[in-house]
# Entry
Amino acid sequence: MKLKIFCMTVKSLKVLEKLPKYIVPFGLGNFKYPNNWLTENKGENISNLNNFYGEVSGMYWLWKNYMNNFKNTDWIGFCQYRRLWLNSLFETKQKTNLSSLYSNLLNPDNKIFSSCDAILLQPTIISRQNLNSEFETIYGKNILSKCLDFVDEKNKVDFKKFLEGNQMSICNMFITKPNIFSSYCEDMFYWIDKCYDYCKKLNLLKGKNTRLPVFMVERFTSFWFEKHTSVKYLSFARLGNFFLSEKTNKILNPLKIPLTFRMYPTIHRY
# Structure
């Protein structure tokens, strides 16, 4: 079984070069990265929208420029420079060093791949609110509600119903088959491009709302895979000192960077 997971990053961290070969560093935006990394600022791209789209702009590049490279790949997926897939579900937070982490990273031989069409992070549960009202509490009223009008007809009703619930898989992390990824991109970009145009027209993309499009996609991603595929769940490891400056990160020995196992089945907010 051949697996490729693209690690979306805006930082050229040495720790990313020490990961298993199936994890491919992918540089977002117009920053400078090692020459052997994949980047999104060539070919058909929306790298100029990375500030608003986050990791989703990298997905666009892969969808438009790289699909032919997946002919011999069974599964593709996404993680981030501060979040890596683990091989199982963890019930509690656990701290570990990098060398110990390797034995817990997702293994392409994991039996989970034979029992589903997609893998998401263990869902987060929101307390006291549904997903739509939680979004409005954080980012403002009537933004997401209005943007639901732009969803394609085959998904609109079900997506609205999904947002009335109180759990979702966060971070736009998923693993699936290439043909399913392509179908997801068709539906997701149809919607989110219209959301971006709407938010830009109303001058909403500023401050904490700069990344409104990617936060909307986070909810759509969880919905879409739950509706269109059979889903299984895994946990992730979160990199500790990812907010350090580039200068400091270059000095640090990656083996000394602390990592924490985290599972998100019952995060309660508000």
